[in-house]
Amino acid sequence: MKTMMNNRMVKGIKGRKVLPFYLFTFLLLLTSCFGSKEASGSGGELTGSGGRAFAEPAPYGMVLIKRGHLKMGIDKQDSLWGKETPVRDISVDGFWMDDTEITNSEYRQFVNYVRDSILRERLADPNYGGDETYKIEEDKNGDPIKPHLNWKKKLPRKPNEDELRAIESLYVTNPATGERMLDASQMNYRYEVYDYTEAALRRNRLNPEERDLNTDNANKAKEPVWISKDTAYIDEEGHIVRQTIERELSSPWDFLNTYIINIYPDTTCWVNDFPNADNEVYMRNYFSNSAYNDYPVVGVSWEQANAFCAWRTDYLLKGLGPAARFVQRYRLPTEAEWEYAARGKDGAEFPWENEDVASGKGCFFANFKPDDGNYTKDGNLITSKVGIYASNTNGLYDMAGNVAEWTSTIYTEAGVDAMNDVNPQLKYNAAKEDPYRLKKKSVRGGSWKDPESYIRSAWRSSEYQNQPRSYIGFRCVRSLANTVSEKSKPVKSAKKK
Asked: Which residue, 350, 255, 305, 319, is CA-closest to 102?
């Protein structure tokens, strides 16, 4: 989530000298435009200030999950571990959710964007292409502005010698086959996230008098406030350096966090997750071969999934214009949101109507591990194309099996007991120096390699935030811009092709 900060430009009114009568008329019209109650004949009564309502468009490929309530957790004795798990009544607000898991094709769009942005930087760099038109550093009046890439300028189809050198710098030679391939180590994405929640906390106010409303603590409130923020940069050797720094609060910009993430999926997860197994074909083909376009992306860590959400937000906001200030950012779902959406409208244990995992005719309802080792009994060996099994009553596909999914919530043994009962979220941005155990995130839904008990909507598992797996993917959510969206007509999902 990168957050856009929008500034309004107020234009001055320039005009020639006018007669007093016309000036008086103009002032009357101006007062009317700004909604003066006296001028509108309201008689001084309180009528409220109106405005144009924002009608949020339905995001492509997402469905509306209306606000509601669920009993979160497993309300039966857990036969797998022989212990009871906590259950709690939870209420969540409405949100949009991807109807399928993010696919290889969709994530490849992200990789291609990063590749092309790096290429444009190098085409503008005097050490490579030296074409300044790939970067915009001045406005139309010639005044300097924050430099940004010129995406309107197309990449060269017939590159000259310098342009070819810039292009070739992004590729390496495969030592085994001799083919040219994209250098995954260069696919670094930089993004910024403004932490509005931390900035809004009373204890973090810049004015000491506003930090504590208890007037007895006036002197204590004047003590220095220390905050932590995430920063990142690339050193001279091209390595990403990530730091969490502690500093005394000095300005609103102290809540702006910077991240640089290598976003290329770890294709080696197929051989690292399964020792003594011949999965090299998946390592070489699963992400790059177009035959797997509509399969869920895997090998993506929690950190990479968050980077994708930030890019997707930025990509969206660029095309919305003034409406961008109302639209919420893409993000990973909270653990509560995920379970609420997976259970469907009836709060079922599985994302289908009954507790059986197959129909009477033996057709399975999800891609998982039916028996001890017969992965193919459900028709698949590893992952399957997204959306080939029926959706749940919310219109969501593969909320059980196929790939497990990252959530934004940290993993604790207490689970729901440690959560609020309204829009619950347990969040902790672990610093690089933190103990590894603090970097566990909640994973939901179970995967193609998991047995029946793991694909229940309430089942919780975990993984470390920097650990990619061949059985973990993700989908995005977006909070509603306003609750009016929930009163609109039912949204039909624009199914991904």
From this structure: 305
Q: Angle 84-86-89 (CA atoms, 0-180°, nearest 5)?
A: 140
Give the integer Cα–Cα distance in Å for 169 and 171: 6
Q: What is the pTM of this model?
A: 0.86
How confident is the model over 280-303, as pLDDT tens digits? 999 999 999 999 999 999 999 999
As a whole number of angstroms, the distance between CA 357 and CA 365 comes to 6
Per-residue pLDDT at 85 exceeds 80: no
Task: Count helices and strands (H / E) in the chain.
Answer: 8, 18
Q: How far is CA 74 from CA 71, 201, 394, in A?
A: 8, 34, 20
DSSP 463-491: EETT---TTEE---EEE-S-GGGGGSPPP
CA atoms within 13 A on the CB side of 439: 14
**Residue in 442, 435, 437, 438 with CA at minimum distance from that of residue 411:** 442
Q: What is the pLDDT of residues 396-410, one digit of tens each?
A: 999 999 999 999 999
Any idea how long the chain is? 497
Cα separation, 65 vs 423, in Å, equals 14
Tokens 């083909």 -> residue: 285
Mean pLDDT of 191-216: 90
Closest by Cα among 399, 402, 385, 296 to 352: 399
Token output for 321:
């214009």
The residue among 315, 427, 230, 406 whose CA lies nearest residue 2 is 315
- Report how far residue 227's alpha carbon sits from residue 366's, in angstroms, rounded to the nearest whole number: 46
